[in-house]
Amino acid sequence: MINFWLASRPKPGADRDMFDFEWGVIHVALMLTTPSVMAGFAKYSQHRAVDDVPDSCFPYGRHEKGWYSIANHVMPDVHALEAIFGGEDYPRRMQPHSFGDKEFVIELTSVVTDHSFGPGMKPGHGVKVVNFVAPAEGVDRDTFEHVGRGEYSARIAELAGEGEDLRRYVQNTQLPLDAAMFKGTLFEAGGVQTYSGIEELWFPDREAARRFRERREADQKCRELESSIIDAGRSFSMTVVERVVWDYTGPDTLPRPAVETPGSVEAGTLATERNWGQWNTEIPAKDGVLT
Prior knowledge:
The protein contains eight helices and eleven strands. By secondary structure, it is of the alpha+beta class. The strands form two sheets. Strands 1-3-2-9-5-8-6-4 form an eight-stranded antiparallel barrel, surrounded by four helices. The protein has a two-stranded antiparallel ribbon with strand order 10-11. A hairpin with a 2-residue loop joins strand 10 and strand 11. The N and C termini lie far apart (42 Å). The relative contact order is 0.20.
């Protein structure tokens, strides 16, 4: 499985409550009734930046563009993404729903480290710190992954201890992603292939996130390993709440979406949709039967 990430924000001057409604309700409804999306994305999560979080919870500081949202899409391989953007139903149904800013951070990654500590975390609870980390000068992808998944993640696990503060740590490493794939889509203005890795850290609350950051910064070995592969000045952090919209990656999953079931109202409604520019076009009939 690989991860397709999008960090974005509402349009300049737009109402954030409306952004949350459109992204959280309308956009999800469109995804659930778009066959290629449901066939391609095995898991879909939304993240929203928490208000009034102190700077001490941001290991790499906030991004100058003030990103508010992170979408994470889990899929089997990049061909699933190509099938979605290159198919018929996504451009027709999803593409016109433009509710956020035209700028994005876009990354494709694979998970190289996944550690849980103590009691773990229930989805949707606590806070999550997501670090988009840029490579240090001269560090290539192989070196970043080797150190990151080895000594660096091991040191994070040591600092986590019994999970009093940090409950889960996931490290993602960048995969190749051709920006040409997004030509003609909402994402073509986004920044692609900027960050060598994405760190995900789950905490029971923001105070636990602050304590762990202090412990991490006070540890000389961790700082040395970090600076050997990460350019802190070009990296940024977000402190967010996570919503797992659907997840078909685990053993206990919900039934498949109704749009995939012939005879369902969702599948029937989809079948009556028209292509753009043809919604009011007369369809010839022969002997009372539509052709």
